[in-house]
Amino acid sequence: MTLTPDEHDVIVELMNIGVGRAANALSQLVQDEVLLSVPQLRFMYPAEARATFSESMPGLLAGVMQGFRGFMSGRAALLFPEERSLELVRAMLGVDMSADEISELEQETLAELGNILLNNCLATLANILNQQIQTDLPEAFNVDTPHLLNRLSLSGDGDEGAMIMLVQIDFSLRENALQGYLAFLIDLHSADTFLAALRRYLTELE
């Protein structure tokens, strides 16, 4: 997907609005300040995404996956290095717990986090672009990096014809700072629909 600088900047702005709303919701949930930002956004095909994940987050990943459909369809995922996910869960829960207790709550807590983050980002995109979108229930999972795209696949073959919107997020909570990714796997038809809606929005702003 070839974007103009203005189109790229608008998507980053919309993502920042979405994660900002998610940060407010999380701050109320954990009764502490949560800071989220989007320093980088890229569109890429699966082969490039595999290389990016192998370089930036090798090893085991903890994630939350959620299907979506409407003006665009696909799967969205929140991804963190697996070894940092327990730190994140501990920070979110805000209580002293054993590693075993934290581990038992990891999937549930990450699913709640992913639900808040992914829903806010998808809803923000749809609302500001005057479109409709529906989301499925979130599903927490663990996977090693080489098998990530197969895990997120829409068709079971790694979706070589799909487009991936990869959003880097910086996450800060209770003096814990970590970096994760939001990955939106969308088919090429949905990517065209998304771009058309974005261009209509930009035209209306002029």
UniProtKB/TrEMBL annotation:
Keyword vocabulary terms for this entry: Chemotaxis, Hydrolase
InterPro entries: CheC (IPR007597), CheC-like_sf (IPR028976), CheZ_family_phosphatases (IPR050992)
GO MF assignments: hydrolase activity
Keyword Calcium: no
GO biological process: chemotaxis
Pfam families: CheC
Lineage top rank: taxon: Bacteria
Ranges of residues in domain CheC-like protein: 9-40
Protein known as: Chemotaxis protein CheX
Organism the protein comes from: Zobellella endophytica
Lineage: Bacteria, Pseudomonadati, Pseudomonadota, Gammaproteobacteria, Aeromonadales
